[in-house]
C-alpha cells in the first residue's frame, strides 16, 4: 500500500500560482470526455509548450481512475447528476499540476509491472508515472474526506 506522497508537489501558496482552473465532473464515464475538453480549452490559453498531449493523457487517466475505483458501486438514485469528482489545473511559471479529487479514502495502487500487458485496462497509474514528472496523493482533510491524486509536469525551465 502506498503512503501519501507529497514530495515534488509545488507549494500550495495561492499567491504563487499564476493560473488556476477547476471543474466538477459527474459520476458517469462521459465525464472523462468532459475533463479532456475542459483541459484542452484551459491549456489552450496557457503556455504549456510541448507537454499538452502528456497532460491531456494524464488527466484522462486520473479522471478514469476516480470514476472507476473511487465511487461506490451502487449510486443512489439521481447520483449520476451530482459531481463527486473535481479536476483542478494549477500552473506556476515552470510547472503545472493536474489534481483530481474524489470521495474515496482508498489508497491509489498501481498494478504490478508483471501483470498482463495485453490487458485493456489497469495501467492508468503506470501511464501517469510514465508521462508526468511526478505524481502522488494525499487525503483531503475535513468532513468531506476523500483524496486528491495529483501529477506534476515541468514546463520549460523550472522555477
Please give a handful of descriptors for the protein shown.
single chain; 159 residues; alpha+beta; 3 helices; 26% helix; globular
Structure in words:
This protein is an alpha+beta fold and 159 residues long. Helices cover 26% and strands 23% of the residues. It has three helices and five strands; from the N terminus they run βααββαββ. It has a five-stranded antiparallel beta sheet, covered by helices on one side.
Strand/helix succession: EHHEEHEE
Helix content: 25-40%
Low-confidence stretches: none
Largest beta sheet, briefly? 5 strands, antiparallel
Summarize this, please?
The protein is α+β, with helices and mostly antiparallel strands. Helices cover 26% and strands 23% of the residues.
Question: How is the topology of this model organized?
Answer:
Blueprint: E1 19-25, H1 30-45, H2 52-69, E2 85-91, E3 95-102, H3 124-131, E4 134-139, E5 147-154
Antiparallel strand pairs: 1-2, 2-3, 3-5, 4-5
Helix pairs in contact: 1-2, 2-3
